[in-house]
Amino acid sequence: MNRIITIDGPSGSGKGTIAGLVALRLGWHLLDSGALYRLAGLAAGRAGVGFDQSQVLADLVLGLEVEFRDGQVFLGGEDVSLAIRTERAGNAASKVAAVPEVRAALLQWQRDYAREPGLVADGRDMGTVVFPEAPVKVYLTATAVERARRRYNQLKEKGLDASLADLITEIRERDERDRSRAVAPLKPAPDALEVESTALTIEEVSKRVLDKVLETYPDLRDEGA
Ligand code: C5P
Description:
Elements: E1 4-8, H1 15-26, E2 29-32, H2 33-47, H3 54-62, E3 66-69, E4 72-75, E5 78-79, H4 87-96, H5 100-111, E6 119-123, H6 126-130, E7 136-141, H7 144-157, H8 164-180, E8 193-196, H9 202-216, H10 219-222
Parallel strand pairs: 1-6, 1-7, 2-6, 7-8
Antiparallel strand pairs: 3-4, 4-5
Helix pairs in contact: 1-9, 2-4, 3-5, 4-8, 7-8
């Protein structure tokens, strides 16, 4: 299966939105890998497992009962769609994500998403580690302040409490942790199309990505994309 598009970048860069739009437009599967790390972080917190207990964390991840259904996420049958989207869950995710055993436990799970007719995968290391063979790789960025502002609006829309100043600090801390970790650090793949989205609309970013997709897979035009 070589129809894979990877979309990586820091928190709040718009990866999730763009990946969702591209997957919908093409009718391809979508992998939100951040959700898997968020689920792992949530489960670790609930089970009281410390971030230093690497093998226990990895075993916990392998035993997670996760289901994605109708746009909702279930953990052991419980709807955790909102619980995994809080800043707290994001920070827990970023901590478990720095544990090599956790990343190894999630690797095959993520690769299994590569199915016909195609996959759009969003995360931090989709193009560098999980799908290095993907023919289309995108790396999305935006300034930390702009990303915090977007996250603030998203949280408010969901009725969740937020402070812009705290979000800016948290986004900077999370960036630092994601970029400096020893395993699968956040960085663009050498062959990624880099898109700086601070001054771009969602439509402009998705157009750039779709232009690249259609250039790589010209037959998709005939399929009506
Ligand atoms: O993308 P999202 O903000 O949901 O990801 C939450 C956290 O999970 C990130 O801050 C990052 O530490 C981690 N993550 C990762 N690798 C991925 C996706 C997410 O390390 N492929």
